Amino acid sequence: MLRPAKLTCAIVSGLLLAGVPNFAAPSLAQSQPSSQPSWIVPDLLAGAKSEGELIVYGSMNEEEALPFWQLFQDASGVKVSYVRSSDANILARIAIEYRAHQRSWDLVATTPVYRLPDEVLLQFEPPEAKSLIPQARAPNRRWYGVYGNYNSPAYNTNFVKKADLPKSYEQFLDHKEWAGRVAIDATDSEWLSGIFTHYGEERGRKLVQDIVATLKPVVVDGHLVLARSVGSGEYWVALNNYTGLTINVLLSGAPTDFWALDPVGLAFGSVGVANQAPHPKAAQLAANFMLSREAEQFLTKKGRLPTRTDVETNPPGVIDMLQQKKVIVTISSAEQQKKMQTTFNELFRPR
Questions:
Q1: Whole-angstrom distance, CA of residue 137 vs CA of residue 140
Q2: What is the model's pLDDT at position 291?
Q3: Are the C-beta atoms of 219 and 351 separated by less than 8 Å?
Q4: What's the farthest any 2 CA atoms get from each other in the chain?
Q5: What 8-state DSSP symbol labels residue 106?
Q6: How far is the C-alpha of 119 from the C-alpha of 54, rounded, in Å?
Q7: Cβ neighbourhood burial of 271 (10 Å; 0-12, 13-18, 19+)
Q8: Distance CA 67, CA 75 (A)
Q9: CA-CA distance, 334 to 197, in Å (whole number)?
Q10: 3-state DSSP assignment of residue 70
Q11: Cα separations (Å) of 119 from 22, 62, 98, 277?
Q12: Whole-number Cα distances in Å, 90 to 23, 67, 85, 122
């Protein structure tokens, strides 16, 4: 039975990562026997079996991740060690281990994979990536989107009527009765980036300042925590959250739902392979698995929103609904993200 590994959290700021030579992996062969899963690449499978192990750093909660990786382990025969922590702590750990020249992990699966320096990630091209939407394929071929983190507000249906939902972010200002009942995740700089892109920085900043002054939103740690807190009624409204996590809590039977407003920011829960992976064949095979139709269909059972064009959402039509609004891909450089997070902290700090 697959079990999670323990991760010691470390907080690192301002790390300057030393470069190492890049090496490119050859394109993965696409042919496999019909009796095997579609994502199996025979040459990689042989190499992965020889390596015998895979070490994954990921932010997906164990309830989803352990059965997900059990699928890979059962099909490949490769033992998986899953190390779970938050996005920020994963990036910090990778930075520390990279500077120490430690070959500690093979695969990283979390939202801000794109913020890792190029020299940390392997350049490769898994065959299953051909079925992804274009935005989910990094131009430099170092990360690929496994599921879409579409940004939208959410609410508890026991405390807020659907008819009363704001039709724009400006209309949040009409709901002073929600003061102290609204929350947002502490790392939602990508949402803020979408707001600035849509409204312009000056107007967007003023809008957020007014929302903070009027509604006094509580800043919480973790998007899943936020989704569950709205579902439980601890907060009535999430100013923003990942839509897939709101659906996750909705599917569990909680009285919660989302609604879409302009803009809908979009980032991805992504996968990348370590440039110096101790088990490189297993890592590349696992990345191909994560992008497969079978894997993305499995993730939709818990509400994750697929990046493949041949996988329907659960419930159906979610992405079609979101795309009726202005969708803005909010992926940025590490430097830009750090600046936006600083701005977010300034806007949402307690007053």
A1: 8
A2: 98
A3: no
A4: 62
A5: S
A6: 20
A7: buried
A8: 13
A9: 17
A10: helix
A11: 6, 29, 10, 12
A12: 23, 21, 6, 17
Per-residue confidence band for 19, with pLDDT thresholds at 50, 70 and 90: very low
Query: What DSSP character marks residue 167?
Result: S
| Phi (first) and psi of residue 333, to 5 degrees | -70, 160
Q: Which residue has the tokens 């020249």?
A: 101
What letter represents residue 237's amino acid? V
- Asked if 248 and 128 count as a contact pair (C-beta separation under 8 A), the reply is no
Place of tokens 């470390």: 10
Mean pLDDT of the chain, nearest integer: 90
User: How much is the average pLDDT of 196-206?
Assistant: 98
The token duo for 116 is: 């890792």
Q: Tell me how far apart the alpha carbons of residues 208 and 202 are, in angstroms, rounded to a whole number.
A: 10
Under CATH, which number does the domain 150-266+318-348 receive? 3.40.190.10
CATH number listed for the domain at residues 23-148+267-306: 3.40.190.10
Distance, in Å, from the CA atom of 63 to the CA atom of 107, rounded to the nearest integer, reads 19
Parallel, antiparallel, or unpaired: how do β-strands 264-273 and 327-329 relate?
A: parallel
Task: Tell whether the model's pLDDT for residue 25 goes beyond 60.
Answer: no
228 three-class SS: helix
Distance CA 48, CA 149 (A): 30
β strands within the chain, DSSP E? 4-5, 53-58, 79-84, 107-110, 144-156, 182-185, 218-220, 237-242, 256-258, 264-273, 305-306, 327-329
Ordered by start, the domain boundaries in the chain are 23-148+267-306, 150-266+318-348
Helix, strand or coil for residue 132? strand
- Asked whether the bond before 21 is cis by omega within 30 degrees of 0, the reply is no
